[in-house]
């Protein structure tokens, strides 16, 4: 059968589409339940290659990855976290401060692999295509690489946790990262005993998930309705997971 020009090209099958959405909805920022099982080199290579295939403005590919495995380095990074976290806790007053101090916000020493993701802002030279008006597109591109890795990790049964409570200047000195290179993320990777049904901060009562319908504007900011219809409701992550589980059993 000849495909007409109006037909979409290279459609995924229904099962493939559901697997993509399942990875998105079941992705978690993991800080607990790490197992001692090491991540095989070939699996880590797949995750890094997935990250490396993210889109980047001007195809500049500004990311680098520093793999951390040794206990000594992890312990030093953990101390940086403890110092920064103690200072961060002082920003809150009771009862919020008590809730903050009860949260587990990292899995640095428990996870199999730590990964520092950086952005080399000079890569591609002074005139990168598409970057002349928005200089921070290199940072955005690196974040796309991180999300690629995160979703691929979920498909591999590997949890990823982003440790944002760190002094990046001190982290750069510890890891020997050159001054012009920017640290974007410090990630903890490892197999886990389970993935939480809800994000930790939602389960702890720190924040609730916003409704996507309230975040969509049509044609101009503040216009919430397109014609007579609002954005249709989305299928919940739970229903997608349950349907995928039934299909797997069947």
UniProtKB/TrEMBL annotation:
Q: Does the keyword Flavoprotein apply?
A: yes
Q: Which InterPro entries match?
A: BluB, Nitroreductase, Nitroreductase-like, Nitroreductase/BluB
* Residues annotated as domain Nitroreductase: 24-191
Annotated region described as Disordered, given as residue ranges: 229-250
Ranges in coiled-coil conformation: none
Enzyme class, spelled out: oxidoreductase
**Which Pfam families does this chain map to?**
Nitroreductase
**Keyword Flavoprotein belongs to the record:** yes
Recite the UniProt keywords alphabetically. Flavoprotein, FMN, Oxidoreductase
Can you name one GO molecular function term for this protein? oxidoreductase activity
Q: What is this protein called?
A: Putative Cob(II)yrinic acid a,c-diamide reductase
């Amino acid at each position: 059968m000849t495909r007409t020009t109006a037909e979409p090209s290279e459609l995924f099958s229904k099962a493939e589409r559901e697997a993509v959405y399942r990875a998105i909805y079941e992705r978690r920022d993991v800080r607990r339940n790490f197992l001692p099982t090491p991540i095989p080199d070939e699996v880590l290579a797949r995750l890094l290659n997935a990250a490396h295939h993210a889109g980047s403005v001007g195809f500049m590919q500004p990311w680098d990855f520093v793999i951390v495995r040794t206990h000594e380095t992890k312990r030093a990074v953990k101390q940086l976290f403890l110092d920064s976290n103690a200072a961060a806790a002082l920003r809150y007053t009771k009862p919020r401060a008590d809730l903050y101090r009860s949260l587990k916000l990292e899995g640095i020493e428990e996870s199999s692999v730590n990964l520092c993701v950086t952005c080399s802002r000079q890569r591609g030279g002074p005139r990168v295509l598409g970057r002349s008006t928005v200089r921070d597109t290199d940072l955005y591109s690196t974040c796309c690489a991180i999300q690629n890795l995160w979703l691929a990790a979920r498909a591999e049964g590997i949890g990823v946790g982003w440790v944002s409570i760190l002094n990046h200047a001190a982290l750069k000195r510890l890891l020997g990262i050159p001054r012009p290179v920017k640290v974007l993320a410090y990630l903890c990777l490892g197999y886990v005993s389970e993935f939480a049904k809800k994000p930790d901060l939602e389960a702890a009562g720190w924040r609730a998930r916003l409704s996507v319908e309230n975040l969509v504007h049509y044609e101009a900011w503040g216009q919430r309705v397109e014609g007579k219809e609002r954005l249709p409701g989305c299928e919940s992550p739970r229903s997608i997971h349950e349907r995928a589980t039934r299909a797997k059993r069947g």
